[in-house]
Amino acid sequence: MIAQLLVVGISSIQPIIIQNTLMALNNSSLFMKLLFLVLFLGIFQTILSTASSYYLSLKTQSASIELQTSAFSIGMSRPVFNSRFPDDNDVSNRIVYDSSTVSETTFATFIGIYKSVLLFAFCILAMIYIDPLSTAVVLAFLCIVGLTLFKNTKALRTSSERLRVAQVDVISHIESLLLARRVFILARRVSSARVQISKRLRSYYQVARQYSKLRATLGPAISSIAQLGLVVVLATAAWQASKTTSPVATVLAFMMYYSLLTPEITAISNYWFSIQACAVSKKRLQDLDTDDWPQIQHEADKASNSHRYPSKLSDPNRPHMIDLQNAVIRVTATHVIGPVSLTIDSGESVCIFGPSGTGKTTLLRAIEGLLPLESGTYSYKGSLVNMRTIGSFWDEIAVVDQDFPVTPRTVIDDIRIGNRQVTLSEAAELLDFVGLNRLSSTNGLDSKIYQNGAGLSAGERQRVSWVRTILSMKHLLIFDEPTSNIDQEGELVFCRLLDEFASNRAVLIVSHSKTISKWASKTIHIEDQRST
User: Fold this and answer.
1) d(CA 405, CA 83)
2) Along the 532 residues of the chain, how does pLDDT read in single tens digits?
3) Could you point out which of 313, 449, 485, 498 has its C-alpha 20 to 30 Å from the C-alpha of 293?
């Protein structure tokens, strides 16, 4: 509170300094001295803004980002994404929720708005006091700002181009949402966590997209108007000065006002964004506290569980399950993968093969929907994979990454992550098939895995991830280096497992294994960022 009052007190000194400056500006003989005075005011404004924003940034921006991260990450902090899964005991420590923090953040935000509006109003009054020229320019400037904001507000509903700009800003949120979805499903921190997770993520992803879309629209607009206003001011002032109808001191004064006014306009928009972030985060965190997590399965899960295994597409006229055409993925300014074209249908297996560092995993991330395509098309069962359909697409795929994560719980709990309807006999059958006989018994299924899979060897964890993926009943199975800790005999077991229990599903594998590449029905060889 003391720091907040100090900020307001320091900010109130600004009008006094500006008022004294106005009195000095009326005397044109002080022109040279005023140049140094303007320089001093600019430095003072910078120091004052830095000092006053220190507390505001600490309470407003940092808290908003932290709360917003919690909202977008479904109540889990970012360190969880580094292949670390929380214990049941530290779940409460992972949820960032403190009503007092939200209140202080909102209060600090309004202090910043008060500071901005005060200086904004004073500058307008000062300009009106000096001469009609400043008044006219200010009114014109305000009209331009108002019309531009109205135009952009209307354009938010119809402009697809602005959505493309926002996609760049929101792509990190997409990756966070997918990671949060996997972590949340894998962790199963609460026994009643069988919920419509994908639907929840899609709803809050929409909030993130709208937020980024609005910021991507208003930010450039405000900046452009500020630059345009400066051009108008300087042109008008130069024309008036050439006719000697306006003293040079007035032009100099207006330039000073403009330099003080422009950052405050931007600050107001930033504070407004902070309030929106706090509001969204507070609502999401309240939902986490009050939600009863209803015991229902998502409609997509029910549909995928309606048959023991998905049936093979027998109609040749039906669209491909995966259809990637002339896809180009840009990783960096000089690193491009593609163009790549491939199709995958039910019952087919595709192996992406090639040396390390050629972009196999990057291509896989694009197929998973984590990386955007620079060019080309990507469709799933005839529907384009885009921002609107990515949620339903994720519901129908199962992914095993290179680190093949497992949860710090029992073996059967880990296997049931993708499908809660898996029976003990089904799990035991597949564990026996992959050579984990010691885990297929009742005692073995109930054995503890411990944190980071410490109860199993690397090879055993990888085999458990095979079983979990097969029993997830998803239509598309994606494996990234599934046999990195398995010998050649184990690679043959992996191939037989897919032949026996996933013959009617589409399988996509990234691997260095020649055994798997020979077994697959299709092989994509990537070399020097191009596919053959």
Assistant:
1) 7
2) 444 444 444 444 445 445 555 554 454 444 444 444 554 554 455 455 545 444 444 444 444 444 444 433 333 333 322 233 333 333 333 333 333 444 444 444 455 455 555 555 555 555 555 555 555 555 555 555 555 555 545 544 444 444 444 444 444 444 444 444 444 444 443 333 333 444 444 555 555 555 555 555 555 565 556 556 656 665 665 566 556 555 555 555 555 555 555 565 555 555 555 555 555 545 554 454 443 333 333 333 334 443 333 433 445 567 788 888 888 887 776 777 778 888 888 888 888 887 777 778 888 888 888 888 888 888 888 888 877 788 788 888 888 877 655 555 777 777 887 777 788 888 888 888 888 776 756 566 766 665 455 567 778 888 888 888 888 888 888 888 888 888 888 888 888 888 888 878 889 988 888 888 888 888 888 775 555 4
3) 449
Tokens of 283: 């609502």
Q: Are 461 and 403 in contact (CB under 8 A)?
A: no
User: Could you tell me whether strands 375-380 and 383-384 are parallel, antiparallel, or unpaired per DSSP bridges?
Assistant: antiparallel
For the entire predicted model, the pTM comes to: 0.43
Strand 397-400 with 349-353, pairing: unpaired
The residue among 203, 197, 195, 199 whose CA lies nearest residue 180 is 197
| Beta pairing partners, 343 | 323
Residue-range domains of the chain with CATH: 2-290 (1.20.1560), 322-531 (3.40.50.300)
Asked if 467 contacts 432 with a C-beta cutoff of 8 angstroms, the reply is no
Least Cα distance to 18 among 132, 124, 136, 145 occurs for: 124
Question: Are the CB atoms for 233 and 255 separated by under 8 Å?
Answer: yes
244 CB-contact burial (10 Å; exposed 0-12 / middle 13-18 / buried 19+)? exposed
3-state secondary structure of 417: coil
The length of the chain in residues reads 532
What is the three-state SS of 457-521? CHHHHHHHHHHHHHCCCCCEEEEECCCCCCCHHHHHHHHHHHHHHCCCCEEEEECCCHHHHHHCC
CA pair distance 516, 274, nearest whole angstrom: 51
Residue type, 149: L
Beta strand pairing call for 522-527 and 349-353: parallel
Three-state SS for 416?
coil
Give residue for tokens 């909030």: 207
Query: Is there a cis peptide before residue 355, judged by omega within 30 degrees of 0?
Result: no
Tally of CB atoms within 10 A around 476: 22
d(CA 169, CA 159): 16
Nearest C-alpha neighbor of 531 from the set 74, 522, 427, 141:
522
DSSP-assigned letters across all residues of 355-390: -TTSSHHHHHHHHHTSS--SEEEEEETTEE-STTTH
User: Based on C-alpha coordinates, what's the Rg of the chain?
Assistant: 30
User: Is 285 within 8 Å of 97 (Cβ atoms)?
Assistant: yes
